[in-house]
From TrEMBL:
The keyword tRNA processing applies. PROSITE patterns: THUMP (PS51165), UPF0020 (PS01261). It comes from Anhinga anhinga (Anhinga). The gene is Thumpd3. InterPro entries: RlmKL-like_Mtase (IPR000241), RlmKL-like_Mtase_CS (IPR053943), SAM-dependent_MTases_sf (IPR029063), THUMP_dom (IPR004114). This is THUM3 protein.
Length: 490
């Protein structure tokens, strides 16, 4: 659509979206994308990423996906990029690449994404000041006009750019996880500061020099490079620095590591290179939790675990060791036709989970249109080995077992795990019940499971990375065997 005059906001514009997902749950995320957006995904060779194409007007739906952490629009992918052996030459090639990339459409997608964020923050402020005129803002048509102007502006400025060779073709999955951790952490910290800036690039141009609207605000940017592979002659910092220098020269943007409008991503995984522009400032996995505990589970991972056990309407779903409540809160939000029960033996955890539920209810109240509904979720303090639930009364159990690292100990797990599996087996419906359990203490779990083989059959195992720890998610099916009320394990 480039060059044909301004298109209506996001009309013919298509975007290749990259999404980072909890490692091991790439297929789950691809299924969700297919189901909710109707797009097929390519799963990256490097774990933890998927790619799919959507029309730019579908961006709001993309942000509503439950299994993705961070989103970016792909500028270009190179499946088999030939890096020179000499460091200077390799970095010079990356610099030269900037001028050849097809930035125009991805920057329009970024602009459109920004205008969506702006609407959202405007609406938030509006809610705080006046609940009476909730409807007014949306029906004004005023914002629509602003978006249109922004789109035109992006168009005219971006058209002036060299679009370079657009050989995107159909490439296999690409990109890479953090070759160096510090940059990842950097993202986390600067995220919070960015909230106020959401969409501050509104009346700016996304391209070179001038804009039709008089003087423009110079965009601030940073480049984040994630590199994996041992055949590169340079570090991710060097690549980010030199690539960033070329971006600055090309667009006349200003580099700013913490207060940036645009985050350009350079993902290098062996010979695969993906250049992208970030569409999320803060990982979407923090969506439901306001009160974090020492081991709060990512909402995206909670969603993946719940999805593994395929909840059906009217199922009773229990998380017996709920911590701050990430799993049941995600469950009640996404599967409201099930009944969710959460419990923990730690009063502090129960309090945090209750606070998270309250925050969620408040958030729901603030949303326009619907009358505020409760959520089908209760939280209880209990003892995992003596649950106050009737034998065979539960359809699904989903929980994050203590790893024995930050909470508890591996030694305690040797007694706890078999006792838990036994009690979970008791409350779970024989024949149809299922459990999805996450643990890093795989040895102990395998031993406990072998003792409990008469009541639990192991289905699928998904290997995941939880905060740098190599963990496993086990899907267990409840056998028809009756669970004895009490029995000695070892």
């Amino acid at each position: 659509a480039a060059g044909e005059g301004p298109a209506p906001a996001g009309a013919e514009l298509a975007a290749v979206i990259g999404a980072t997902v909890p490692t091991g749950f790439e297929l789950t995320a691809a299924e969700e994308v297919q189901e909710k957006l109707g797009s097929a995904s390519r799963i990256s060779r490097d774990r933890g990423k998927i790619y799919f194409e959507v029309p730019a007007r579908g961006l709001p739906q993309v942000h509503r996906l439950r299994s993705v952490d961070n989103l970016f629009v792909v500028v270009q992918e190179f499946k088999d990029y030939q890096f020179k052996g000499n460091k200077e030459d390799a970095l010079k090639d990356l610099e030269d690449l900037v001028k050849k990339l097809p930035w125009t459409d991805p920057l329009k997608v970024w602009e459109l994404n920004n205008s969506l964020k702006k609407k959202k923050t405007k609406r938030k402020k509006h809610n705080l000041w006046s609940t009476a005129s909730k409807e007014k803002l949306n029906d004004d048509g005023e914002e629509e006009g602003a978006d249109q102007k922004q789109e035109d502006c992006a168009q005219s400025a971006a058209d002036a750019e060299p679009t370079g060779s657009q050989d995107t073709g159909k490439t296999e999955g690409v990109a890479s996880r953090n070759g160096e951790e510090e940059e990842e952490d950097g993202n986390e910290q600067s995220d919070a500061k960015d909230e106020s800036q959401a969409g501050s690039g509104s009346k700016t141009k996304a391209g070179e020099g001038e804009t039709s609207e008089g003087e423009a605000k110079v965009l601030k940017f940073r480049v984040t490079c994630n590199r994996a592979g041992d055949k590169h002659s340079f570090t991710s910092n060097e690549a980010a620095r030199d690539f960033g220098g070329a971006v600055q020269e090309h667009f006349q943007w200003k580099a700013d590591m913490t207060n940036f409008d645009v985050e350009v991503l350079l993902n290098i995984h062996n010979n695969e290179v993906v250049v992208g522009i970030a569409l999320t400032e803060e990982s979407l996995h923090r969506r439901n939790i306001t009160h974090f505990g020492p081991t709060t589970l990512r909402s995206t991972l909670a969603y993946g675990m719940l999805r593994l056990c395929d909840p059906q309407p009217t199922d009773i779903i229990v998380d017996p060791m709920c911590g701050t409540g990430a799993i049941p809160i995600e469950g009640a939000t996404e599967w409201p036709s099930c009944y969710h029960i959460a419990g923990d033996n730690n009063p502090q955890a129960v309090k945090r989970a209750a606070n998270n539920i309250c925050s969620l209810l408040k958030k729901n109240e603030n949303k326009e249109s619907s009358t505020s509904l409760g959520i089908p979720l209760d939280i209880i303090q209990w003892d995992i080995c003596n649950l106050p639930l009737r034998t065979g009364s539960v359809d699904i159990i989903v929980t994050d077992m203590p790893f024995g690292k930050r909470i508890g100990s591996k030694k305690k797990n040797w007694d706890l795990y078999p006792a838990c599996l036994m009690e979970m087996g008791r409350i779970c419906t024989p024949g149809t019940g299922r459990a999805v359990l996450l643990t890093q203490d795989k040895k102990c779990f395998a031993k406990a499971l072998s003792r409990m083989g008469h009541i639990w059959r192991r289905g699928q195992t998904v290997w995941v990375n939880v905060g740098g720890l190599h963990a496993a998610v086990y899907l267990l099916k409840r056998t028809w065997e009756r669970a004895e009320e009490k029995r000695s394990f070892w």
